[in-house]
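Extended Data, panel c. Modelled sequence:
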Amino acid sequence: MDISIYLTPLELLNNEPSKNPNRKKLGDIAQVFTKPNHFPDLTNIDIVILGVNEDRKSENNEGCAQNPDRVRNKFYDLFPGDFGVKMADIGNIRQGHKVSDTYFALMTVISELIKNNIIPIILGGSQDLTYANYQAYENLGQIINLVSVDSEFDIGDSEEEITSKSFLSNIILHQPNYLFNYTNIGYQTYYVDQKSISLMRNMFFDVYRLGDVKANLKEVEPLVRNADLLSFDISAIRFSNSPGNANASPNGFNGEEACQICRYAGLSEKLTSIGFYEGNPSFDRNDQTATLIAQMIWYFIDGFYKRIREFPHRGTEDYLKYMVRIDGQEEEVVFYKSKKSDRWWMEVNCSSEMRMKYERHYLIPCSYQDYQIACNNDIPDRWWQAYQKLM
């Protein structure tokens, strides 16, 4: 499929090529779509950067459609790490006559990239574009886990049209449904009504308060390792670190924490797309927010090129297996620990039919803390929530 029909080339960016050929910047390395009829050859490309100049469904943050190129100007001025990056920038999605037209174009481009084992990094635009990203997996017939780093759930009212504050309800109610699990990282309780929190728990979704996450950021790693798609709302970062957002809050993640979350995402071999949304040049100060997003992308790419191809169902010779008996449970809870990375998984008991249908979901990424909980004769929450879905 020729995806170039949905894309517009970039205007000349503000980056100058490196004067020293031995000190190339990312802008010197990436294949960038800058001229009509000169679309990059995506053969052997690992990562693609894709902009979406769309904010017609943004709530209280109009102007975020202009953010993609501001991020690019900062990103392409960075030096690569110790990785041989194979990256292309395919320009920006053409804004459709209707927002639904933009969604269709984005969905088509993302699904084609994933089909060809290329990871898209989506630069928004408003966060409702996550809905189009989700639809790309429906197009591929793939049941997925969605992780959102956000100060809210963006669940809105199911009867409202989709916006940046209600796209999640559209994903949950969409039929056919290809969502296995939703995880929110960093919600701030005063922005979320208790009814919505109860709804998340009743649906056995994983939601984690900002304070709990910041107290032990390492516990984010298994959450992100379980994701196919990660959607990062820049308003989840506190105003002092990321002022370029009309909905920015005094509280939130700091820049280092945001970069660490993105590195965890890069390390996850399961994750196949990531999007950064709601950055707004109209409110930014000295491009601080654009610079931070550029660094977050850098850390994602750094993690990507340090991925370890491991998953217990591929063979257990590289794993230690632990079986924990819990009172009241008929079967033991089985844990696997990688000998390569020391990362943990736990296995959820389910029928062979369910194993075939949810092949990628009955082995859950977890942490040593989950193993300790089981050893203390208690069922880890992550295990229980997945079990409810697989019953």
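The chain has a mean pLDDT of 93. This feature is highlighted in the accompanying rendering.
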